[in-house]
Structures are given as C-alpha cells and as structure tokens.
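step=encode ok
step=design start
structure_in=
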C-alpha cells in the first residue's frame, strides 16, 4: 500500500513527526512551502490571523497529485488554534483524493483548538475517507515521542483498503 505524507513546517516540529512516521510506515514525503516566507515574528503577526480566517497561502508545490496513493496523511503546525494557511492551500491543491483514506496530525505548543476537526472536515469535503487524527505537543516532539498512534491509524486504513 502506498502512503503519502503532506506537511507544512516552519520550525521543524511538524517535519520531525512526518519524517518519523515516514520511516515507520514507509511513506513518501511532500513538504509544502508557504511562499510568504514568514519570519518567526511574521508567523504570529501575519500568519496567525490568516489561519484564523481559514485563508489559503500561495504554496509550493502548487498542485499535489495523490492519485497513486492509497492513504494520504496531512500534518500542520497549529497557528491560532487552526491549521496554517499553507495546509489549507495544500488540501485544496490535492488532486485524486476522492475515495482515499486520510489521516491528519498537528503539532502545537499549547492547545490545538479545532485544528484537527477543521482538517478532517476539509478532507472529507474533498471526498476523502478520514480515519482519524492525532495531536502532538512540542514537548512530545522534542522528547522523540513515538508516532505509534498515528502509524496505527495509517495501518488500519491500509488494511481496510485491501479488504475492500
């Protein structure tokens, strides 16, 4: 079964989780870059209000074809209790997502708010079969917390697809 992990990371926390998961489940990684090029202060002053308004960033890659994958995982940092504008744009940029199993995750310094619920709803709205979500605190990431729960969701979705 083919797995694709799509993520946006500004400080490296979300990238760390994506890379650990890829190593465990054998997935391809797609790093999404926000072309706004936020500074650390800019993430909070400019990016967070955009995240709260559910805006979409101009991203690279601009189009993400997942038609060759069975399971798609999407990861984001939490900005203002929301997914980043880059992840909002990445979900919109997906082609071939209809009918695919999907799993979401986020990394946050505090409260994830409704980040995971928003991502699940966006993917479901695009026709994905969303299997679940896992949140990681920055402390989890720094301590090298296992991605077992996330990997289990990916494996469950893969098993279900082979049975169908």
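sequence_out=
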């Amino acid at each position: 079964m083919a797995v694709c992990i799509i993520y946006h990371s500004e400080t490296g926390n979300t990238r760390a989780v994506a890379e650990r998961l890829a190593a465990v489940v054998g997935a391809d990684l797609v790093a999404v870059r926000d072309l706004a090029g936020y500074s650390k202060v800019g993430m909070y002053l400019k990016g967070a209000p955009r995240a709260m308004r559910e805006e979409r960033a101009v991203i690279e890659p601009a189009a993400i074809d997942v038609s060759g994958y069975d399971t798609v995982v999407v990861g984001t940092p939490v900005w203002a209790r929301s997914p980043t504008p880059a992840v909002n744009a990445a979900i919109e940029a997906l082609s071939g997502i209809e009918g695919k199993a999907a799993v979401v995750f986020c990394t946050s310094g505090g409260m994830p708010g409704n980040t995971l619920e928003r991502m699940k709803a966006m993917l479901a709205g695009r026709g994905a079969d969303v299997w679940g979500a896992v949140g990681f605190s920055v402390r989890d990431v720094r301590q090298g917390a296992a991605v077992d729960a996330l990997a289990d969701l990916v494996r469950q979705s893969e098993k279900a697809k082979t049975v169908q």
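step=design ok
step=annotate ok -> The chain has one domain: 3-154.
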